[in-house]
Design goal:
The protein contains 13 helices and 13 strands. It starts with a strand and ends with a helix. A six-stranded mixed β-sheet has the order 6-10-11-3-12-13, with helices on both faces. Strands 2-1-4-5 form a four-stranded antiparallel β-sheet. Strands 7-8-9 form a three-stranded antiparallel β-sheet. The chain folds into three domains: 232 residues, Rossmann fold, CATH 3.40.50.300; 122 residues, Rossmann fold; 56 residues, no CATH class. The longest helix is centred in the N-terminal third of the chain and has 20 residues. A hairpin with a 2-residue loop joins strand 1 and strand 2. It is an alpha/beta fold and 457 residues long. It binds adenosine-5'-triphosphate (ATP) and magnesium ion (MG). The site of magnesium ion has 3 residues, from helix 1.
Length: 457
């Protein structure tokens, strides 16, 4: 399932906004990135998409289900009603129809909201959301291992590692439970924890736990090698596929991290190994927690929703992430899109960011810049340095304006052979800037050249 296109009318700060999402004819990847100033409307777009998709999810859960309404306060000031249109492409809805052609794979629905006491100019049409949901519901009735499309929205306030203090009684997790809280709070760590423990228990019951393996290893003595290898093979074959998916996703994203597991002593907690040392996940840094929770949540939902796939990370769906660079070190910002697409190759991503690094490291992403309620396509920034992206796409000075002016004056003085003024300014800047400042070093060289040439003449 992919969103092909969306249209917002009188929503948030947008009078009318329409755009296709990747993949398009020009962009083959599944990634669209929105950039723009604070208040440009990035979050509003993601929320609108999530709101619209919530109707499909609600109708998948039950025939007459209702998704989230458009809140009245997001109706454009002065307008009486707002509308969100989306066009969704989904081949599976027609899988039983051999005559189906491309047109049949499109589903389009409109969600509207009218101010109280007003007469709106829009009406909702949600038939296609129901039609598509109907297909998945019947498929699920026929085969309880049917895959469902993941739909998740990760808002900025997504990182709360809420760990239950008590072990509740067991409950089963069905594919549909993969949608629980997926559109309102994003990371549902409590559910992640419960699900992980549940699966780990089953895994340990059917196989050999790591602790048991370690004990055996101590007891084995000289016969260690051959028996040990057999035990390891046995353990690998008894591993839970869904847990393996989550562990693999986390390992892909966070090199050095492994062996995420639930521990019951001294009290219930989740631990992970980082470069050979074991940590309670609550001890991890904000950035590490944030990434682990995000990746773990996407992977867990995919695993739940694709019980029959050999590798559940291959499941499809739509993932919306607000401020994807949040808490990430620049080198992680650079690689986040590549990691997302490598780890979850069939998910469509719509991301927002304030970081030039996020969009300068991928060849094939669709980037839109939002400005004054309008959306413009940004040419590929692949291979650009961060300064150029800041300057060209994010409309931001690359250095402090006062220093920039002084550096310019300095170059002008050198160029026009006002060498004593140049020396004076150079000394002044030398006091203010770090010793290895590259522009200053260049100016120094230029000045030296001019001085030498002056001596020759
Ligand atoms: N009903 C409305 N009518 C007109 N403008 C609105 C309405 N509701 C919100 N806005 C405007 O939309 C903007 C909110 O946009 P949004 O939160 O999507 O921005 P953003 O691009 O995500 O910004 P940030 O980078 O700060 O998160 C606000 O600046 C607000 O002025
Ligand atoms: Mg925002």
């Amino acid at each position: 399932m992919k969103i092909k296109q969306f249209r917002l009318h009188n929503l948030g700060r947008f009078k009318l906004l329409e755009a296709p999402l990747a993949p398009t004819q020009q962009t083959t990847s599944n990634v669209t990135v929105l950039v723009g100033n604070n208040g440009a409307g990035k979050t509003s777009i993601l929320r609108a998409l999530a709101t619209s998709l919530s109707w499909f999810v609600a109708r998948l859960r039950s025939e007459k289900g209702n998704g989230s309404p458009i809140p009245e306060e997001v109706i454009f000031h002065g307008a009486s009603s707002a509308a969100i249109d989306i066009a969704v492409f989904d081949e599976r809805g027609q899988s039983a129809n051999p005559e189906a052609n491309e047109e049949d794979f499109f589903y389009q629905w409109t969600l509207t909201k009218t101010r109280k006491g007003n007469k709106g100019e829009h009406t909702s049409h949600l038939n296609d959301a129901s039609r598509l949901a109907d297909y998945y519901r019947s498929a699920l009735s026929n085969n309880d291992k049917t895959s469902l499309p993941l739909i998740a929205f990760y808002p900025v306030e997504r990182v709360v590692l809420d760990i239950p203090l008590k072990i509740k009684e067991r409950h089963t997790f069905l594919q549909l439970d993969g949608y629980d809280n997926s559109l309102n709070q994003g990371v549902d760590f409590r559910r992640f924890f419960e699900w992980f423990r549940e699966r780990e228990d089953t895994e340990n019951e059917s196989g050999i736990s790591q602790d048991m393996l370690n004990k055996l290893l101590e007891m084995l003595g000289s016969e260690k090698n051959s028996v040990w290898e057999k035990l390891l093979a046995l353990k690998a074959s008894s591993r839970d596929r869904q847990l393996t998916a989550v562990r693999t996703a986390i390992a892909n994203f966070m090199p050095g991290f492994s062996n995420l597991r639930v521990r019951r002593k001294p009290r219930l907690h989740m631990s992970i190994d980082k470069d050979g040392e074991t940590f309670n996940v609550l001890q991890l840094s904000q950035g590490e927690k944030s990434l682990m929770a995000l990746v773990g949540d996407i992977a867990r939902r995919l695993a739940m929703m694709n019980p029959s796939l050999n590798n559940p990370l291959q499941g499809d769906g739509v993932v919306l992430i607000d401020e994807v660079d949040m808490h990430l070190h620049p080198s992680w910002q650079r690689s986040i899109i590549e990691r997302l697409t490598n780890t979850f190759p069939n998910c469509q991503f719509v991301l927002t960011t304030h970081s030039p690094l996020v969009i300068s490291d991928c060849k094939d992403v669709l980037v839109y810049s939002l400005n004054s309620g309008e959306l413009t396509l940004v040419p590929s920034q692949y291979g650009q340095d961060a300064n150029s992206v800041l300057l060209n796409v994010m409309d931001t000075h690359i250095r402090n304006a006062e220093i920039a002016k002084k550096l310019n004056d300095l170059l002008d003085h050198i160029q026009d052979r006002r060498l004593s003024e140049a020396r004076e300014l150079l000394t002044e800047l030398g006091r203010e800037l770090p010793a290895n400042h590259i522009e200053l070093a260049k100016a120094k060289l230029l000045l030296r050249k001019k001085e030498l040439r002056g001596e020759k003449d």
